[in-house]
Amino acid sequence: MTTKILIVTGDAAESLEVLYPYQRLREEGYEVHIAAPARKQLRFVVHDFEPGFDTYTEKPGYTWPADLAFSEVDPGEYGAVVIPGGRAPEYLRNDPELRKILKSFFDTDKPVAQICHGPLLTAAVDGLTGRRVTAYPALELDMQAAGATFQDTEVVVDDMLVSSRAWPDHPAWMREFLKVLRTKAPVT
Fold it and tell me: Cα–Cα distance between 61 and 106 in angstroms, integer?
């Protein structure tokens, strides 16, 4: 049976931060499922920088179907979880079903990959206390408030937790996550 990886996301997730790991993990031979608040066509966004703006801009991105609703997920079926960023984590952290899912991954010491604003979700389940992480740099104070040591670098590996700042860091993020997966949740 092929090892399964779960991606948890919702509307307004960063397109690249969902689709790059989805495709890269499938390329490695993993079975990848996308879970969201409901089974539906998700609407992702593109965040980019433009001259004259103090922060990133947001434009419509790709659409993609969710394979499962959070209420349908059995975390025991998955070897790891990926948490993309974008705006989705802002509201997803309030979803009790998703918090149960994420807590299960931390309680069973399974690999977790998070990027950009994704650490807002792991903070919501107290998964960052005492850990080293990176995230989108504007979240430095949020990471510290969650009990983490923030490092502004392309990737941070803290045991089973692999974090990255944003989509420009994808190669380092997936390279390090795959090292963890090959040890803890290899393709079978």
Answer: 31
